[in-house]
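It is worth pausing here to work through a concrete case rather than discussing structure prediction in the abstract. The textbook approach is simple: state the sequence, then state the predicted structure, then interpret. We follow exactly that order.
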Amino acid sequence: MVTTPIQDALDGIVVAEMRLKNAIADAREQGQSWAEIGTALGVTRQAAQQRWGEDVARALRMREAVRRDPGYLHRTSEERLALRKQWEAEGNPLVAEAGQ
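Step two, the predicted structure:
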């Protein structure tokens, strides 16, 4: 397939969005507030949290799962579900809320 400048630009946007999401997740993991993140992004706390909160929460849960089990990403969806249920039963569920 031949790429075009438009496709190349679109690929760049996708990569930039992934980098931004990871940077925001890093900031949250390091204890930065949504207000601080919003300021860095030039938006309000609420706008930042609404735009990136769920994605960041998912990313943080995935990071935690991989920390607990380095092979997590190579497991089947059924195995992942069983692990999450096990962690929850042990009183140690994966928790990363969008509003945290």
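Step three, interpretation. The radius of gyration is 17 Å. The helical segments are 5-29, 34-41, 45-68, 77-89.
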